[in-house]
Amino acid sequence: MIQAMFRIAQRNARPGARIVLTLVAVASLFGCHQDMWNQPRVAALQRAEFYPDTMGSRGPVPGTVRYEGIRRRWTAPVFDGLTGERNVPLLTDTTFWTGKTPEGFLPDNYFTLTRALLERGRDRFEVSCMPCHGLVGDGRGVVAQRGFPNPASYHTDRLREVEDGYIFDVVTNGFGRMYSYASRVAPEDRWAIAAYIRALQTSQNLDVTDRNSTLAQLVVGGLKEQEQAKAQAAPATHGEAAHEETAHGEAEVNHAQ
């Protein structure tokens, strides 16, 4: 725009005025310098002589209010019962959000193992994990059966020995060909999935005599309930079949008459 105005002024000015305008324009160019473009600044962690302590990266000013995030509700009522809280932990609870402690991955689950937690983990596992990892975690899911490389089986010695926090971290950040599920699975559900994966591992290497293993006893209890449910359903199914046969026979007799 300035150049356009300058051209208009040159066309309308006398020859002497044009020379003056040209000199003014040239002088204005020399008046600009690079400090307008490259202003002095301090990069992160760079030394800065401007401050008495020469530290370029400054800390929060006095009176700063720490932001601890919005505490949303849990994704399922089971977590209310496990924690006695209605909302997820604050961001300052790094173990819950990352699966790590200062010493490394959290060895055990963040939550207390209960039947309700395993049921929640099974539900989320079947939605997000089973297509690749398979129903029992052997890496033979429907996706792998259609040509995708088989993921690792949960029943190898290496994965049986890893920490629960490691499983949580893999779900969060992904591993190998597996992408991150951080945007798809909430942190509390990742812990529930980790608990259910432990149940799957226990089910394939079950020691029913281990009374000190809460997980083993939960798996045994679940298996017993399944057997009882099958036993109760079998007589009812047989009775229903007999009733249907009787009704069918009576219908044939009436038709013959």
Regarding quaternary structure, what we see is: single chain
Helix content: 40-55%
Helix and strand run: HHHHEEHHHHHHH
Would you identify the regions where 5 or more consecutive residues have pLDDT less than 50?
A: 246-257
What's the architecture of the domain at 78-203, going by CATH? Orthogonal Bundle
Instruction: From the alpha carbons, calculate the radius of gyration and give it in angstroms.
Output: 35 Å
Q: Which CATH first-tier class of the domain at 78-203 would you pick?
A: Mainly Alpha
DSSP strand (E) fraction? Answer: under 5%
Description:
It is a single chain. The protein has 257 residues and is mostly helical. The chain has a domain at 78-203: Cytochrome Bc1 Complex, Chain D, domain 2, CATH 1.10.760.10. It is 54% helix and 2% strand. It contains eleven helices and two strands; from the N terminus they run ααααββααααααα. It has helices at residues 2-12, 15-31, 77-83, 94-98, 115-128, 130-133, 142-145, 157-161, 164-173, 187-204, 214-256, and strands spanning 100-101, 104-105. A two-stranded antiparallel ribbon has the order 1-2. A hairpin with a 2-residue loop joins strand 1 and strand 2. The longest helix is centred in the C-terminal third of the chain and has 43 residues, at 214-256. It is elongated. Residues 246-257 have low confidence and may be disordered.
